[in-house]
Amino acid sequence: MTLSTIKDIKKIFLLTMIFTTGCGNKPDLSRFDLVKGEQIYNNTCIACHLAGMSSAAPKIGNQRDWAERINKGMETLFNHSLNGFNDMPPRGGKPNLSDEEMKDAVAYMVSKSW
């Protein structure tokens, strides 16, 4: 193998690592109730976050949609979900959802999109 080939292999490896693991550190989601979050997602969030439903909403399970958002931090994601962001209404349009329920739903989506 030539030096050029080795450098190309290293580049491919690094790019593969970036695209398969995302950038930054994986958030610690252990304090959230992901089962409750899944229920809230299925009853509320799915309307926009399911693939093809809204062009602006990050799709659950799509690392490319979520990587940059996750790298901004969970507090930013929580703030956006609670107060609204771009086309997303505050609390996903369900004002009766508590802060804790919203955070569980966000944590669930992140857990499936990392």
UniProtKB/TrEMBL annotation:
Keyword Iron: yes
Top-level taxon: Bacteria
InterPro entries named among the record's database cross-references: Cyt_c-like_dom (IPR009056), Cyt_c-like_dom_sf (IPR036909), Cyt_CIE (IPR002323)
Keywords: Electron transport, Heme, Iron, Metal-binding, Transport
Cross-referenced Gene3D superfamilies: Cytochrome c-like domain
Annotated Pfam families: Cytochrome_CBB3
GO molecular function annotation: electron transfer activity; heme binding; iron ion binding
Cytochrome c domain location: 32-113
SUPFAM superfamilies found in the cross-reference section: Cytochrome c (SSF46626)
Heme recorded as keyword: yes
The protein's name in its UniProt record: Cytochrome c5
Organism: Thioploca ingrica
